[in-house]
Design brief:
With 413 residues, the chain is an all-alpha fold. The protein is built from 19 helices and no strands.
Length: 413
């Protein structure tokens, strides 16, 4: 809860300093890009595949095999993420130019040069947050959640404090916030390490060939590939939405709308899903299917009971919510209306996204990554087609509606 509130303060600070103008658009696009890879390679993929496999090792009680597995997982993660960071920084100009061309409307400007600079600053964040996600996976597999809950709090504090205190040093608010992102990434990783050490978990960097020969690592890799499209379907949809939104000058308003949606999900849904995965993994490992099904049903009922009335309230009070949270500084009346319109259509899909966050762990706990993969691929395709069709006329609202429709397709499948 504290983390989500601070995240809201973070977004309000960003809106105040940059609004929905060129600088705000550049920062939104640059920040979302490494975050896509973060969700695919870390939180949305590596940690989901890591937890069920690690739970199996912990159940067997062989400390040496557990250490070898963690070492192999850590090594492969560092190599893959390091390569992505290097390519992202080297190709920042090409990435920015791609954003400048996708869905670009003739009357919409885009600062590709500033976007490229911000991409180079923030891509190393991917490495930092991937390490943090790896440590979180270890702690969650042991049933420890406190330090992982503190990590995003520290990230948001750094995001807010650095641009406020050192904004003049970096030339503009966007670059100051980018520096805050890096400092926050360091804080996320460091704050969890003592708890991992106290818990007795050990790991080291090993040669990649040694890592790839580890049987546990091979299981993780087999789970990771389909998980990228399955668990991260929502994040992939959000990425496409951002790219198309930049083309119609609505990246910031759509981004803030998604953040409001994620605030609701984070407070009422994500915490349930985070606790649910290791619990279901343990039940599946011991073949306790009756309590497995009962726990899933209970979690889904609780989430639906909360998300439906929250969605209705958010639709009715959307303009007041956006005005209260963001209207100050560079965020004017036009920015409020753009964001509120997008939030209306995003909220239509809130119930489906909430359901997906509970349904997906059921498959991953049973090591079934194929089913959510097909659902994610179908939803991703629907989102692209609908967003491309609606964005020229509805702008940011059309992109938000496309994401809600795609989420409904994902849930239905």
């Amino acid at each position: 809860m504290v983390s989500r509130v601070l995240g809201l303060v973070r977004d309000a600070t960003r809106a105040n300093l940059m609004g929905t103008g060129l600088l705000g658009e550049a920062f939104t696009v640059a920040f979302n890009t490494p975050n896509l890879f973060r969700r695919l390679l870390a939180e949305g993929s590596m940690s989901v595949a890591l937890i069920p496999t690690l739970r199996t090792y912990l159940s067997d009680g062989d400390e040496r095999q557990t250490e070898d597995f963690l070492s192999a997982s850590f090594s492969i993660l560092i190599i893959v993420v390091g390569a992505v960071v290097a390519m992202g920084m080297a190709g920042s100009t090409a990435i920015a130019n791609l954003y400048a061309s996708v869905g670009r409307q003739p009357d919409v400007a885009f600062d590709a040069l500033e976007t490229a600079v911000l991409l180079r600053i923030m891509f190393p964040f991917l490495a930092l947050v991937s390490i943090a996600a790896f440590l979180q996976g270890i702690l969650n597999a042991h049933g420890v959640f406190g330090p992982s809950g503190m990590a995003p709090i520290l990230f948001n504090v750094c995001f807010i404090v650095v641009p406020v205190l050192f904004g003049n040093v970096f030339g503009n608010p966007a670059r100051a916030m980018a520096a805050g992102v890096l400092v926050g990434g360091v804080a996320q990783a460091i704050c969890q390490l003592p708890a991992v050490i106290r818990g007795g978990s050990r790991f080291r960097f090993v040669h990649p060939l040694v890592a790839l020969r580890n049987p546990g690592m091979r299981k993780v890799l087999a789970l990771v590939a389909p998980t990228i499209l399955g668990m991260a379907a929502y994040e992939l949809n959000a990425f496409v939405s951002t790219a198309l939104a930049a083309g119609v000058g609505a990246a910031t308003s759509v981004g803030l709308s998604i953040r409001l949606q994620e605030l609701v999900l984070g407070v009422f849904v994500v915490s349930v899903g985070t606790v649910l995965l290791p619990e279901l993994s343990g039940l599946a490992a011991s073949l306790q299917w009756e309590p497995f099904v009962g726990r899933f049903r209970q979690s889904l009922e609780v989430v639906m009971l909360v998300s439906v009335p929250v969605a209705v309230f958010s639709i009715v009070a959307r303009v007041d919510i956006v005005t209260l949270l963001f209207k100050r500084g560079a965020f004017d009346n036009a920015s409020v209306l753009m964001t509120a319109d997008a939030f209306f259509f995003h909220t239509l899909g809130l119930v489906f996204i909430a359901a997906n966050r509970i349904i997906a762990p059921v498959f991953y706990a049973r090591k079934d990554t194929r089913s959510p993969t097909w659902a994610g691929m179908a939803a991703f395709g629907v989102n692209i087609l609908v967003a491309m069709a609606l964005s020229p006329s509805m702008r940011g609202s059309g992109i938000a509606l496309a994401l809600s429709i795609a989420s409904a397709v994902n849930t239905g499948i």
